Amino acid sequence: MQFTLPTTKEQMYETLGEIFYYYRIKREGWEGVELLPLTLNRIEFTPLSENDIKQRIDKYIAPEISMQKRQEMQAVEKEISSLQTQKINLSVANEEQKLLISKEYELQSSVLMQDALSRGTAQSTIITKALEELQSDKAEKIEELSQSYATKISEIDGRITALNQKLTDIENFYSAYRDQLFNSKLQQGIDEQEKFGIDVLKYNNGIEEREVKHANSVLSRSAELELKFRELNQEFYTKDQLVEMGYYEDVIACVCAYYDTLDALTAYQQFSADKKVPIYLDDYYINILYIYRSRAGQ
Fold first, then answer.
1. Averaged over 121-131, what is the pLDDT?
2. In this structure, how many other beta carbons lie within 10 angstroms of the beta carbon of residue 228?
3. Which of 3, 9, 115, 258 is deepest in the core (most CB within 10 A)?
4. What is the value of pTM for the model shown?
């Protein structure tokens, strides 16, 4: 402790009182111990609206369904295109066959007429009837060819009709499949989001509970530390503690500072008669008394 050395008895007593208060009365006030709070990260969760969920599902399933449907429809359309090509080829072949039949019978008619002219029978009923029979045969063959062509075309048209129906069936199937899958995914998405929301709420509540427990623990621990401090602070210091703290050193310095201003005999007489000084010096009083008595030659 820092203090001014006294030169009068009054100053000595005043300083001794300050020293006594500083070392033996005054206590450090409780300032508390900073115990850090527990801060945990929470999960931020903003649920999607049903429309948002629908848009996400549609974005997810639409491309896959569209691709599957497109693949199946392209296969059917390829068959239809092939049949349409067959129809065109049959039509061309039919016309070519008709032309060949016509040319064949024209050639036969020409040969017949030339032979008749060379015989001079071109105007005979036999030649006329023969030419009519050739025309009849030609018409019959062309009719047979046309019927065969019509049958084949009808068969192809039937297959095309069936394939067009298949396209419609594919369209209807994937439309129903999409609706079914969409509704299934929608309900699944709603259920999963609801479950996740419950899990997030439980987790965040658990976090809050842990923080509250920690905060209560901090308050409890702080209270325990303060109580312990105050309990310790109520105890009187031992002589050894006072020695270590420098109490007696300061008391002796203060007392001697004043009595050393007196002559040896006066110092001894007043010191031995002083009733207050022993209170501050405790066991050291005898030692100081011995010093002043020795100086006074008593």
1. 74
2. 10
3. 258
4. 0.47
